[in-house]
Amino acid sequence: MMTDTFRLRATAAFVREHDAAALLPFLLPELDGLETRALAERCRFSHAALVVFPPDPETLRAELAASGLLSDQAPRPSVVVRDRLAERHRRGADTLDVTILRPPVHGPDGVHRTVEVFVLPVPPGSDLAELARHERANEDEAHVAFAVDDPDPLVLHGLRAILLRRGAVPDGGGYNPHEDATVFYFGTPQAKVRYQRLELYAPGDHRDVLDVHLGPHADQPAERLLRLLTGAWTTQALAAAAELGVPDAMDTRADTDVADLARATGTHPDGLARLLRYLAMLGVVAWGRDGFRLTELGALLRADEPHSMRPLALLYAGPFYRSFAQLAHAVRTGRDAFEHTFGEHHFAHFARHPELADLFDRSMAASSRMFEPVPAHPVFDSARRVVDIAGGNGALLGRILTAHPHLTGVLLERPHVLAGARRSLAVAGCAERCAYVAGDFADVPPGADVYVLARILHDWDDDRCREILRHCADAMPAHATLLIVERVLPTDGAASLATAWDLHMMCNVGGRERTLAHYARLLDDAGLSLVGHRSLPLDATLLHARRTARPDVTG
Ligand SMILES: C[S@@+](CC[C@H](N)C(=O)[O-])C[C@H]1O[C@@H](n2cnc3c(N)ncnc32)[C@H](O)[C@@H]1O
Questions:
Q1: DSSP state of 31
Q2: Is position 207 within any domain?
Q3: Active site (catalytic) residues
């Protein structure tokens, strides 16, 4: 359990190191440059907040002093956080004596900021000990706050609209008469920093805007849970649209009439209208005056879109949907649910069903935009030969060979995958510079300069990964490089696609996503060293490893 001093120090360091323009895109990765600028012009990053639970005032003073946080201001009563704690822990608000301190901290540019410290005394033997334990572990009240200096209602409505459009979710708020200030809380579920709540802090009484923010039922956990529970319907609605060719028959620049769309897709007009209404809620299509328009998001489901995500939609709503229904089996037994559902491992199952193998290969290509920056890695400049181990349909090798005409490539894959790889490398114009090896991880060809393992290690448990990495290390000359593409699990609780894919790997493959330290250990065990890493699109990371130099024992 983290001590309050540690939590105070970490919060103060965060406030010191960040500013609004840099922080906002981490909280809401979908913000575009214009929106970030509009927000940063009207909102200052003012503080990060936490709740502490000192046994007595002396301990609190000592903890604040040890964290470099000193304030001679008198504490003010908290209303909003007190009420939230009371509701979460089913206690009367008047039994919680929560006060607010705001010790100053200087930001990177010397500007005045604060750490907002909510203080709830928990004397020894108090019945609040369990509440304190829960709150320290979950940090439900931790948030970062942006102060709005000129908060007229129009500005507040405009700021809310941008935040909501980019994935923020209303998460309560309130008016504190002791401070004459209104706060608006938002959840930021996509955040790439440890804070998944954002506060707009507006001096003055803005309860009219707050009423809109809170909505009639917005603070009901039951409503939030209902929204979460319908996730399966989202997967199926997206896949149904893709299967029926709805995005393919729509336009991103003009509205399409529902009756026309029903004719074009061979669907029932009422059924289609209802599906479209749901898709509009997801942002996949948008309501227009004359029907519905396809959005940029929805266009990714078109069959002819470069990097089309249609195959992924069909896979996730098809075989992987059936196996996800058995997730509890995977959690209970530690064994993958795909094998439990289909009677064999997914690689073997797909190998026996060519239409599924094809769907799988095309769905891997759907997210191959994560490879875009890989060919720019400097290791390719001095290399001559590259081996892509289990390179799938050759999407990555094709990019590397296209960017570096001096290179030759080898693609190692299972025999049934090679035909597709040959075709796509021929389309990429790299056929003459590429050789193919039909085989297993044990057949990694020796003597190349760069070896690539993209989205392979997460398919396997640690023992099999060590084995695969040893095959690589054995094949690698002393100067060679191994590049690994994976989604790396964050260690600070930040939201990441890796966390979702870790569940997918457990359920469907029997593998796992890993932290950077975990990869470093596996490499080390195989005689390799992690020497660098850089981030890639779609929450992926490129790890760079070399053979570990062995001490010269020839003496
Ligand atoms: C998740 S895909 C990744 C493909 C490619 N590297 C990419 O990122 O697009 C995993 C690949 O491992 C291959 N594979 C599975 N078992 C293998 C084995 N024993 N030896 C070689 N390749 C294998 C599969 O055929 C599949 O193409």
A1: -
A2: yes
A3: 458
| The amino acid at 466 | R
CB contact set of 101 (below 8 Å; sequence gap of 6+): 64, 71, 73, 75, 116, 117, 119
Q: Is 392 in the pocket of ligand 1 (CB under 6 A)?
A: yes
* β-sheet bridge partners, residue 293: 286
Q: Give the domain range for residue 217.
A: 4-225
Distance 226 CA to ligand 1 centre (A): 38
pLDDT of 218: 55
Strand extents, DSSP E, 149-229: 169-176, 181-187, 197-203
- Residue 343 lies inside a defined structural domain of this protein: no
User: Could you tell me the pTM of the whole model?
Assistant: 0.67
For every residue of 223-247, DSSP letters joined together read: HHHHHHHTHHHHHHHHHHHHHHTTG
Cα–Cα nearest to 204, from 145, 144, 151: 151
- Is 395's C-beta closer than 6 angstroms to any atom of ligand 1? yes
pLDDT reported for residue 555 = 40
Crossing angle for the helix pair 33-42 and 20-27, to the nearest 10 degrees: 130
Residue 133 contacts by C-beta under 8 Å, 6 or more apart in sequence? 1
Both 248 and 167 in one domain: the answer is no
Asked if 210 and 258 sit in the same domain, the reply is: no
pLDDT tens by residue, 257-311:
999 999 999 999 999 999 999 998 888 988 878 899 998 889 999 999 988 999 9
Q: Does residue 441's CB lie within 6 angstroms of at least one atom of ligand 1? A: yes
What is the per-residue pLDDT for 312?
96
Distance CA 123, CA 129 (A): 8
Same domain, 66 and 157: yes
Centroid of ligand 1 to alpha carbon of 351 (angstroms): 11
> What's the structural domain count of the chain?
3
Please report, for the domain that includes residue 391, its CATH number. 3.40.50.150
Do 373 and 510 reside in the same domain of the chain? yes
Same domain, 46 and 79: yes
What's the 413 CA to ligand 1 centre distance in angstroms? 7
Ligand 1, residue 390: give the atom nearest the CA. 22
394 Cβ closer than 6 Å to some ligand 1 atom: no
* The pair of three-digit structure tokens given for residue 233, joined into one six-digit string: 């319907």
The verdict on the CB of residue 440 being under 6 Å from ligand 1 is yes
Shared domain for 242 and 177, answered yes or no, is no
Mark whether 531 and 384 lie in a shared domain. Answer: yes
Residue 339 inside a domain? The answer is no
CA of 456 to the centre of ligand 1 (A): 6
> 296 and 221: one domain?
no
Name the DSSP letter for residue 405.
T
Q: How distant is the alpha carbon of residue 374 from its chain centre?
A: 20
Residue finishing a domain among 225, 260, 275: 225
pLDDT in tens, 302-353: 999 988 999 999 999 999 999 999 999 999 999 999 999 999 999 999 999 9
Using the Cα atoms of residue 157, residue 162, residue 164 and residue 170 in order, give the sign of their dihedral. Answer: negative
Residue nearest to atom 19 of ligand 1 (CA): 440
**Quick check: is 415 in a domain?**
yes
Residue 182 sits in a domain whose CATH number is 3.10.180.10
ipTM (interface pTM): 0.99
